[in-house]
Amino acid sequence: MSILKSHRKMSPFPLKRKVFTEKKSLLDELLEVQHFRAIYNIFVAVFCIVVVRAVLVDFIDTGRIFLDFEMIVFAFGRLHMTLLPWLVMFLYTLLVPYQILQIWVKLLKTLQLPTLLTSIAAGVLLIGHATVLGFYPVYTLMSQPFGPASCCVITIEQVRFLMKSYSFLRETVPPILQARSHDGKMQLPQFSTYLYFLFCPTLIYRENYPRTSCVRWRYVIGNFAKFLICLFYGFMLFKCISIPLSSNINKQPLTFRSFVLLVFIATLGALYLIILLCYAFFHCWLNAFAEMMHFADRTFYKDWWNAASFSAFMRNWNVVVHDWLYYYIYQDLLWVFKSKARPVAVLSTFIVSGAFHEYIFMMSLGFFHPLLFIFWLISVLADLLAMPNSNIILWIRMLCSVALQLTIQSLEWYARVHCPVQKSTFWTRVTPRTWSCYS
Predict the structure, then answer these.
(1) Cα distance between residue 323 and residue 271, in whole Å
(2) Which terminal CB of the chain, N or C, has fewer other CB atoms within 10 Å?
(3) What does the alpha-carbon distance between residue 356 and residue 388 come to, in Å, rounded to a whole number?
(4) Could you say which of 322, 357, 369, 418 is catalytic?
(5) Distance (Å, whole) CA 325 – CA 328
(6) First to last CA, the chain
(7) 303-321 pLDDT, tens per residue?
(8) What is the dihedral of CA 334, 337, 343, 344, to 10 degrees?
(9) Phi, psi at residue 297, to the nearest 5°?
(10) Model-level pTM?
(11) Is there a contact between 169 and 122 (Cβ–Cβ < 8 Å)?
């Protein structure tokens, strides 16, 4: 015990680290079971029915059979223009943190500055890096009329590059400081490992990851095809559920009764959106990139459907982001404030996560509705207070909260269409117009 305490005093950061192991994705394992594949086939059948319904409605209304891609084209408006800001963010993240680290190590070798002073200088450079990487994408989105999905792509990539660059510096700086304090060799990581890290599907930097021996290109193409089908499925759900309920509501006053009916009608769409998001992004998209990058650890999610509490759901829902939050926010806060501050560390971690998610929603939709942040905060406080919970209660809360968010954001979107303002300012962008427009 005394050895552990002395080692903890010498170590500038916590000892617990993420361990990567070669493992298949959970759905790939479950789909090998015939009973689970039958459930998967049911969802595919429902997708086919939704598509047939949309085709029949279009045929009855117009007398023609066609699939309306107008909504998809609008959502991904100016998608080709997202390549330029992505390339700028990628090159900046690729070159600047690595060059800063090189310069910093050279200064450590030539100038015998105190460790605290060099750490403060590194922190200032990191803040400058985050400021530049944070300002440029926001300026790009505000100055050009991107579609909401294209805005979402840029914003998610901005957040991803910020988290990746922080992880790289967070994992490489402490060993360099330890080597300097023990008169050891301060060794920089290879540039190729950092380049690989920017593309592999993890937010935790390591110089080595478990690798697969070959690339199954049929698996890659199949996952990308499924991802595109899921995108189409999601837009069809919006077309069949959300748009008919929200687009014409300005023709009559929005009453409490009609609002409650809209929320409960949207619960089915909320269930499908939760499942689609996990399958499309966490399974298909990340597995396709992992296969191309020979990345063997496919634990991008766990059995979130079996969770009995909100914190367990969030741990299993998105393992990639959860690992970053756990090791760099929660664990570091515990290290600074000791184990007595666990509730503060938990709450702070969820606040950071909620702020990132709300930022993505705000930049994608063009208005600020902190519904997700409020739901998460209430759920986390309920877990910290040890309120009664179960899988059924959790799913009722999840479906109602997602349906409420889907309804309010759909109403707000069409309120801005039906009730535009004469002069657009920051306050008109963030102030809700739902009730004033529909009253």
Answers:
(1) 25
(2) N
(3) 28
(4) 357
(5) 6
(6) 67
(7) 999 988 888 898 899 999 9
(8) -110
(9) -85, 105
(10) 0.86
(11) yes
